[in-house]
TrEMBL record:
Name recorded for this polypeptide: D-alanine--D-alanine ligase
Lineage, uppermost ranks: Bacteria, Pseudomonadati, Pseudomonadota, Alphaproteobacteria, Rhodobacterales
Amino acid composition bias (Basic and acidic residues), ranges on this chain: 225-234
UniProt-listed PROSITE patterns: ATP_GRASP
Stretches assigned to the ATP-grasp domain: 116-327
Native source species: Roseivivax jejudonensis
Keyword Endoplasmic reticulum found: no
Record-linked InterPro entries: ATP-grasp, ATP_grasp_subdomain_1, Dala_Dala_lig_C
Region (Disordered): 225-246
MF annotations from Gene Ontology: ATP binding; D-alanine-D-alanine ligase activity; metal ion binding
Ligase as UniProt keyword: yes
Documented EC number(s): 6.3.2.4
Family from the record: Belongs to the D-alanine--D-alanine ligase family.
Keywords tagged on the record: ATP-binding, Ligase, Nucleotide-binding
Length: 341
């Protein structure tokens, strides 16, 4: 099976480096042949057998001819255009099989407020929130979190403990997005939940917990990413700070596990996710109830990817599961096989 890995960003160098970090560590299932296409911030494309072995830059018309007819396209682009326009280009314009959410679904999940509305209508619990019109400040009582609506990686997010901090938090969020909202802070654990579609069933693998504390109540950019090694690889790498490392499998009792799995499956269906999905929840310290924070409809099929780690934490082989999912997405599924939920 010929697989084209599409990575890069036309947004900025940060998103380009983030995309490359995952693309260069993509898994290689048996029976697949990999090729890479990179889109640079200036819009030019480059192709090659590896992320560090790309050919000369070319404009879009030439790139469209160079793409060819791979059996499957695996997207590694995380910026807004990468999650939407480039997915639409692959699937809707070129008619190529794409693994992961379609462009319209990815666009919905990019918006935290719209995601909240959709999953709440499906019965998934979310905390109180309000959209902020230009010039407005939150009416929520602190503590609350101010967020850009369509930004990821904790960019632009602030916790407001006192109303005097509100104006600065809103201004910071608006540096990243014109649409900003405030969300009631949920004290307690932060747990990530994945849903993977296999053979007509949904698998929820091991839960992954991110460390939070009174001193660090939310995850910040530095908790996730740090500068790369400067040796020709991607300019970013996952944080190596000891107090930022996730725990997988996270210790979760059966009742909480059922609640998290049920909420994630309901959100997956409500959003119209395809092949896989990823959700972040806060578990209220007093009530024990999960509150959905956001959806992440991305899996780069890298050893670094959260879903890969969660599969491994549940005793599955991420490379083998990847191969099965890719064959399903490409319409080349082998005989049905069952994975216990």
């Amino acid at each position: 099976m010929d697989v084209l890995h599409l990575f890069g960003s036309t947004h900025d160098a940060f998103y380009y480096d983030l995309s490359r970090m995952y693309a260069e560590t993509a898994l290689s299932p048996a029976g697949t042949r990999a090729r890479y296409a990179a889109v640079a911030p200036d819009g030019h494309w480059r192709f090659g057998p590896a992320p560090d072995a790309l050919g000369a830059p070319m404009a879009l018309p030439a790139a469209l001819a160079e793409i060819g007819r791979p059996d499957l396209v695996v997207p590694h682009m995380f910026c807004r255009r990468g999650m939407t326009a480039y997915r639409a280009l692959v699937e809707e314009v070129l008619g190529l099989p794409l693994v992961g959410a379609a462009a319209g679904t990815a666009a919905l999940a990019q918006s935290k407020t719209r995601t909240r509305d959709v999953v709440a209508a499906a019965g998934v619990r979310v905390s109180a929130a309000e959209r902020l019109s230009p010039g407005a400040l939150p009416g929520l009582a602190p503590p609350y979190v101010v967020k850009p609506d369509s930004e990821d990686n904790s960019l632009g997010i602030s916790v407001v403990h006192d109303s005097a901090e509100a104006a600065a938090a809103v201004a910071h969020a608006r540096r990243f997005d014109a649409e900003v909202f405030a969300e009631a802070f949920v004290p307690g654990r932060e747990i990530r939940v994945a849903v993977v579609e296999l053979d007509g069933e949904t698998l929820v693998p091991a839960f992954l917990e991110y460390p939070v504390s009174a001193a660090r109540p939310i995850r910040e950019v530095a908790d996730k990413l740090e500068p790369g090694d400067g040796e020709g690889r991607a300019g970013l790498r996952q944080s190596r700070r000891a107090d930022a490392q996730p725990v997988c499998p996270a210790p979760v009792d059966p009742d909480l596990g059922r609640a998290l799995g049920g909420a994630a499956r309901a959100a997956h269906r409500a959003l119209g996710a395809r092949h896989y999905s990823l959700f972040d929840f806060r578990i209220h310290a007093e009530t024990g109830e999960p509150h959905l924070l956001e959806a992440g409809l991305f899996w780069s099929f890298s050893a670094l990817s959260a879903i890969s780690k969660m599969l491994a934490g549940a005793g599955h082989d991420p490379t083998e599961i990847t191969g099965r999912l890719w064959r399903d997405a490409a319409g080349q599924s082998t005989r049905p096989r069952s994975v216990a939920e």
